[in-house]
Design goal:
Collagenase (Catalytic Domain); 54% helix; LP_HExxH_w_TonB; 299 residues; four-stranded mixed β-sheet; alpha/beta
């Protein structure tokens, strides 16, 4: 409501200004003073995005807040200019270039990565107290939230809040293009002990990550559905060290083999359907993560 009031005031001021101009004896300039924000180069960051996202990948980064692009069910604020620059640099280095390296060209990202990245400054809070870290829409856009608290040198925080999310949402997009085998879902369906996907009740059913692991899910959110579990397995694997992954499997205890069966299907899907070895991708991602503390994030 506060935003709406400010918008109405701005429109009123514009009408008043135009009225005064029309009454003036000065001649009218035939050049419009209203410009769009599409792909026009308006700031040094826009120029950098043109050279590093639009031209090589045909990806648009929307860092200015646009109502039409946001989810109106949440109270959101714009991403800060400085944080947006840092995030764009990190997405390029840790994600886009990592896939370029493993595939040998930019073609994979150019053909499959969503064409729009939308940056939002604040978190998106759900009624149950959970926070939305990112969303993917129809294979065309990924939205990242909470950029205003970005700590660009904290690799663990970058993974937990942003880059696991990017790999997760990108996995959904790949699944939309090439569905995975139904054998994946059946692993849970055939399990003993009444283990099932629990939908949005995952936070209540599994109060801790350990409890989810001990029921054979790589994370609490993985217990939501087979689709969410599939991309959780891939995204958690590529952003965690081998030691951290092994710790999760050990925590699963008797359900370790259940997770390993599901991950085997995920691994083969990426390898056979997309030509990507997840182990090699993880090596690339982890190596690049080591550069983060000294990475030049200026433009």
């Amino acid at each position: 409501m506060h935003i709406m009031k400010r918008t109405i005031f701005a429109l009123s001021a514009l009408v008043f200004a135009l009225s005064n101009t029309a009454c003036s004896e000065d001649g009218l300039d035939d050049k419009s003073v209203i410009t769009g924000i599409g792909y026009e180069i308006e700031t040094p960051f826009d120029e950098w995005l043109l050279e590093n996202f639009i031209e090589p990948y045909n990806i648009r980064v929307m860092y200015r807040y646009e109502d039409m692009e946001s989810d109106m069910t949440y109270n959101l604020v714009p991403a800060r200019y400085e944080r947006s620059i840092e995030m764009a640099q990190l997405v390029s280095y840790l994600c886009l270039q990592a896939y370029d390296e493993i595939t040998g060209s930019r073609d994979f990202i150019r053909a499959n990565f969503p064409k729009d990245l939308f940056f939002v400054g604040s978190p998106a809070y759900n009624n149950n107290g959970s926070i939305v870290l990112g969303t993917a829409e129809g294979g065309t856009k990924i939205t990242l939230y909470n950029l205003n608290t970005l700590d660009p040198r904290n690799v663990d925080a970058l993974n937990s809040s942003y880059f696991k999310t990017i790999h997760h949402e990108f996995g959904h997009i790949l699944n939309q293009k090439k569905p995975y085998t139904s054998d994946f879902e059946q692993i849970v369906g055939k399990s003993d002990g009444g283990i099932r996907y629990v939908g949005n009740s995952c936070w209540e059913v599994y109060p801790t990550e350990t409890s989810a692991l001990q029921d054979g899910f790589i994370s609490r959110y993985a217990s939501t559905s087979d689709g969410e579990e599939f991309v959780e397995l891939a995204s958690i694997y590529v952003t965690n060290t081998p030691e951290a992954w092994e710790t999760k499997l050990r925590t699963a205890g008797a359900r370790r083999s259940m997770i390993e069966q599901k991950f085997d299907i995920v691994y083969k899907y990426y390898e056979n359907d997309w030509g990507i070895d997840l182990e090699k991708l993880r090596e690339i991602v982890l190596r690049r993560q080591q550069d983060v503390p000294t990475l030049d994030l200026d433009i």
